[in-house]
Amino acid sequence: MNAKEQYIAFMTILRKEIRRYTRIWTQTLLPSAITMSLYFVIFGSLVGSRIGEMGGFTYMQFVVPGLIMMAIVTNSYSNVVSSFFGSKFNNSIEELLVSPTPNYIILWGYIIGGVTRGLAVAVIVTVVALFFTHLSIYSFPVVIGIVTLTSVLFALAGFINAVFANSFDDISIVPTFVLTPLIYLGGVFYSLDLLPEFWRGVSQLNPLVYVVNAFRYGVLGVSDVSIEFAFGMIAAFTVVAYLYCMHLLNSGTRLRQ
Amino acid sequence: MVPALAIENLSKTYGNDFTALKGISLKVEQGDFFALLGPNGAGKSTTIGIICSLVDKTGGQVQVHGVDIDLDFAGAKKFLGVVPQEFNFNVFEKTRDILLTQAGYYGIPRTIAEERADHFLKKLGLWDKRNTASRMLSGGMKRRLMIARALIHQPKLLILDEPTAGVDIEMRRSMWEFLQEINASGTTIILTTHYLEEAEALCRNIAIINHGEIVENTSMKSLIRRLHREVFILDCRDDLPRSCAVEGFVTRQIDSHTLEVEVEKGQDLNTVFKSLSEQGICVQSMRNRANRLEEMFVNLVEGAKG
Ligand SMILES: Nc1ncnc2c1ncn2[C@@H]1O[C@H](COP(=O)(O)OP(=O)(O)OP(=O)(O)O)[C@@H](O)[C@H]1O
Ligand SMILES: [Mg+2]
Predict the structure, then answer these.
(1) I need a surface site. Which of A71, A174, A185, B173 has the fewest CB within 10 A?
(2) Ligand 1: centre distance to CA B222 (Å)
(3) Which residue's CA lies nearest to atom 4 of ligand 1?
(4) How many domains does chain B have?
């Protein structure tokens, strides 16, 4: 396929992905808006007012970046995992496999599809957040860079999950037992400074710590970890995940018999 | 002219160690209308799966219009349109969107894709259903949608895996006509079927596959002729004369007392006996030699019913 044909194929996948999650928006876009509003009300307003300051900001201001990131992570992930597994499940993935579309276009189509959903939800959550607190952005380049990298990374992770999933149960196991705990322990709700030394060290192994803190740095200008290091880690995770996804596609793992 | 499809010694062993294809070879010329006939589990879908990259082959070569799938799979795929045996679309997508999406996967610009999609929707009687989610189509409509989808990039070779399964007789006829039209306009067609009648109505050449092996590969005409030919073995009382023959029939002298006669459709045995009597030959008993091909078809038909 020449470059123009590849572009058309990419846009076709992307358009199909967007059509999918907007068609079922009550399952894809709405839940995050509702959950996050509840978080804002409970942790930000009710409980938050008793907690006082965290890292030099009101508790509400402190948790908002983490919650937005949480929405981005879960939505990019679950979009790709449900969509790609779904198309394996109903065999419509064969439409792509019999076509001359190269594997990297297939991958990027699904990944960017997930990224757009992550971003769409991020915008919704941000708008909701503005009802509760004032938000200003400390560094646009950091915010844009970290949001893009993170949503790509978790879309890739969702893709890997989809490749190996055999049932619809399998696509909720990782989000429930891995992703959610990592997010909760990733410093969304607390500053790592509050942790004892040992647990602060353990937390350094959690990729979500870098994601949440880098984003918080972009919004508030404070972070528990070095921002360069955070970027480096996320970028490294992303490259490894991308190469692994390409390997899965090229070898036809769980796609071809 | 390179053949539309050339398969050389193709084999497939699935992950569970089951060998579905035992080294088959096949050649389909451009413009042909070709039938791949075989009972359930013969290996038809496996063969098609390999050609269109849904199944990894274990050994052998496949060339589509001279393009080796091992060397340039994307190039080979452009020549190829496939109608699979099982429905495989996203049931929530609308009919027309399914066609447009498939066109996009081949890099076809939107405006051209829309023209073609509308053309095929009309042509295949799906125009009224263009904005219907595919899950709400009837089985026959779904099959026609899969045909439209396979044609959207104007492939030179169209492969259909049991296209008329679950399609009523009237619809089947109009589908046949449509396929003949496509074939007449230059598209090579390969279809798999359980029905000899279907192959006979449509195809010029045929291969019969059973247990992962090609057991027959010939023109439809000669196959039908052989199918309708019966061979009788006549046991005679006396020694047969050396030059024993029956005019208009192919005969073979097996030994001094045994004569084999081939009887084509439309010929009758009376003529044979009359001629033999005139030659003073007395037939004591007669039996039918098993027709290997016919046996196979009895199995096929039973297989298709079961
Ligand atoms: N994924 C698989 N794993 C293991 N064995 C398989 C697999 N797919 C097919 N087979 C086996 O390979 C053989 C050939 O199957 P195939 O689907 O090619 O037959 P077919 O000729 O298309 O039959 P039908 O007319 O029923 O569609 C069968 O015995 C089948 O059980
Ligand atoms: Mg089959």
Answers:
(1) B173
(2) 29
(3) B14
(4) 2
- Cβ atoms within 10 Å, residue A61: 23
Element at A11 (helix H, strand E) = helix A3-23
Instruction: Kindly list the residues from chain B whose CB atom is less than 8 angstroms away from the CB atom of residue A110.
Output: none
Q: Compute the nearest-CA separation of A16 from chain B (Å).
A: 7
Residue whose entry in the numeric block shows the structure tokens 């008993």: B285
B240 lies in the same domain as B217: no
pTM: 0.89
* Domain shared by B220 and B263, yes or no: no
Question: Is the domain of B58 the same as that of B202?
Answer: yes
Is residue B85 in contact with ligand 1, taking CB distance under 6 Å?
Answer: yes
**ipTM associated with this complex:** 0.91
Residues flanking ion ligand 2, Cβ below 5 Å: B 44-45, 85
Same domain assignment for residues B209 and B60:
yes
Task: For ligand 1, atom 11, name the residue with the nearest CA.
Answer: B20
Residues B44 and B9 in one domain: yes
Q: Which of B183, B200, B224 is the last residue of a domain?
A: B224
Distances (CA, A) of A215 to A67, A149, A211: 10, 11, 6
Q: Quick one: which ligand is closest to B40's CA?
A: 1
> What is the domain range of residue B131?
5-224
Q: Is B48 in the pocket of ligand 1 (CB under 6 A)?
A: no
Task: Work out the pLDDT band at A133, boundaries 50, 70, 90.
Answer: confident
Q: What 3-state DSSP class applies to A166?
A: coil
Give the pLDDT confidence of B52-94 residue by residue, as tens digits.
989 999 999 999 999 999 999 999 999 999 999 999 999 999 9
Residues B185 and B42 in one domain: yes
A87–B90 CB contact, under 8 Å: yes
Alpha helices by DSSP H, chain B: 44-51, 73-78, 95-105, 110-123, 139-151, 169-184, 196-202, 220-227, 269-278, 292-305
Residue indicated by tokens 């991020």: A122
User: Which CATH number is B212's domain given?
Assistant: 3.40.50.300
Mean pLDDT of chain B: 90
- In a shared domain, residues B255 and B172: no
Whether B190 and B159 have beta carbons less than 8 Å apart is answered as: yes
Interval B233-247: pLDDT, tens:
999 888 888 778 888
Distance B44 CA to ligand 1 centre (A): 8
Chain B: which residues have CB within 8 Å of chain A?
Answer: 14-15, 49, 52-56, 73-75, 77-78, 80, 82, 84, 86-93, 97, 100-110, 149
Final residue belonging to a domain, choices B184, B206, B224: B224
A238: pLDDT strictly greater than 70:
yes
CB contact under 8 A, B86 and A86: no
Residues B75 and B140 in one domain: yes
pLDDT at B303: 53
